[in-house]
Amino acid sequence: MMKYNYLLIIILAVFFGLTACDNEEQIIEQDIRLSAVSENTTISENGKSASSIIDATGGTIEFDIQSTVDWFAEPEDAQWVALVENENKLSIKIPGNQSQQDRSVRIDLKSTEGQNTLASVLLNQKGRIPGAYDLSVELMEDDEQIFLPGDKSEYTVKVNTDSKWTADAIEPWINIVEDQESNTFTVIADENITFSDRIGSVIIRYGTDNINESKYAINVNQFCTTDAMVMVVKVGEETGNTVMLPFHDQDGSNKLANINCLVDWGNGKMQRVFFARPTHKYDNPGTYEIRIYGEVESFASNQMELGTNDAYKRCFIAVKNWGNIGLRSLKYAFVKASNLAYVAAPKDDSFNKLESVYYAFNQCESLTEIPDGFFANAPFLNEGYGAFEQCTNLKKVPDSLFAGCDKLTRVTRLFWKTGIETIGNNIFDGCVSLNDVGQIFYQNEMLTSIPADLFEDCVSLTGFSNAFGNCTSLTSIPVNLFANCVKAENFSYTFRNCTALTSIPEGLFSNNPKVTNFSGIFYDCTALASVPANLFAKNTEVTNFSNMFRNCTSLTAISVGVFDNNVKVTSFSNVFNGCTLLEGESPYTIVDGIKVHLYERDLYPELYTMPKTVTGCFKDCVKLTDYTNISENFPLWI
């Protein structure tokens, strides 16, 4: 028998050994190798690095790429090169260098998965030698290249030379119109409908005797046709006529966020931007309309200069169009933008990648209205914490605000301390993953009513802490408000200080069997006159009733059996503290014909969990018929 056991062990060992080898063979090492196509290029022996020297007049350098992974090329902080990537080829277009200083840039080749640098190219371009050639060009602003939006567009270039010259486009989508009298030429490009950016070149040929004596290159970049985001800004003395855009290079989960766009600053100036927090200084104070073409995945105005200088945030006046720029995160997007008064309704695809609106419009005090269905086309949205917190002039929650957001999990403090008077219809339709609405309408002092179906689809909700706390004008609660919230666990302080609330519907918590915490739920509800006898009859898991009816100064009576089914409660502290008008006998349960009051439960450990915190439960309830008995024999409960 032992012989067979040894044989089995050997077979298993061979099997697992082969399996391990097979797994090892499946692991493919990430690798990129470069080989040169262009002259004046040196490649390392392992093909991992390359260096090229480029003349001041510019040109194109090309590399063949051998790779085991998908890759992309990324220049290190340089706007003067343009990259054209194909599956197995990289072309680098270098414009003419008008400076007398040499310049260099490193270009990293990275894997799309993990974004590890696997190879790199170092480009060194010579500076202009005085007298070596007599041509320079003037581009818009501080451009090193020509940048065009995706729609039909033009760009005029000034040519400074005493020589003869002509400008030619290499790519067929670029058209050139020369004006030799003014020494200018205009680059014209039709709408780019290719769904990808286009990169090309203009070559200026010039010479004293022969027009082909010298050449000078200018890169032309055109974005694909996208619906631009349009923002209105106002600049003045406070920011030195400077605006800063809240582009951020991380999303709401601190993952890398792409920035690759063209910004039309609204004063005839355009700028290619692939970095966070770009700035632009205007010649004059005033209001300007900024257009953003391309991709910006994240906005966050709490970062660096914008985070420490609220003056920049006060420049934002309106978002006229959200466009389609690939937004994934609006976390802190316009926090403290106190002059932001208008946000447009998004297009169907504006928010189709959006994941977070955490504090997005926090403290936007001038915002008075949100469009209906604002986030209804955001299928990946999962975070809404404090999105409109302290928007003090916001009066209505729009209809269908988050309709269809089935990945949304949290809207805590969503409308915390705003001016909300009315809650629209269907705002959480389809929000089946929503689990926390704590403080959602905290201190909305003008809110008078709650839609009965507000949480109808929110079957995953567990937390309602302080959801309607300090809503001092709220007069009633719909009986079915929590009917579908069968997973609800925490109702602490949900209606605290709702001073206009006079009654509670008896079946309010009938479908919430998992609730453990009712602490302070009606604390300071000073107009509440009565409590339904069976209010907590279905809530058998409750452990905390502390402060529940504290300071309910209009409460005159309580059913003696209101806590009959709540046998696991460990905290009764301050439940009726300050209920000075409460009359009759304190709550009790009949056990074998004997009254067992709350303060007597510890005498029946086989029936009740031992109450641990009971201080002040009946403090100042001097009209109770058993108050003297409690104060003399159970003083901890006073």
Order of strands side by side in the largest beta sheet? 21-20-23-18-24-25
The chain-level structural class is mainly beta
Bin the helical content: under 10%
Largest sheet: 6 strands, mixed
Rounded to an integer in angstroms, the radius of gyration calculated over CA atoms is 35 Å
Strand content: 25-35%
Shape: elongated
How many E-type strands?
29
- The chain-level mean pLDDT equals 91
Number of helices: 4
**Contiguous uncertain segments of 5+ residues:** 1-26
* Straight-line N-to-C gap: 78 Å
Summed up, what is this model?
The chain is mainly β.
Outline the structure in words.
- It is built from four helices and 29 strands.
- By secondary structure, it is mostly beta strands.
- The strands form eight sheets. Strands 21-20-23-18-24-25 form a six-stranded mixed β-sheet, with no helix packed on it. A five-stranded mixed β-sheet has the order 2-3-9-8-5, with no helix packed on it.
- The chain has helices spanning 2-26, 304-308, 310-313, 627-633, and strands at residues 32-36, 41-43, 49-54, 59-67, 71-75, 82-85, 89-94, 103-111, 117-125, 135-138, 146-148, 153-161, 164-169, 174-179, 184-189, 198-207, 214-222, 229-235, 242-244, 259-264, 270-273, 279-281, 286-296, 316-321, 342-343, 396-397, 422-423, 588-591, 594-597.
- The longest helix has 25 residues, at 2-26.
- A hairpin with a 4-residue loop joins strand 14 (174-179) and strand 15.
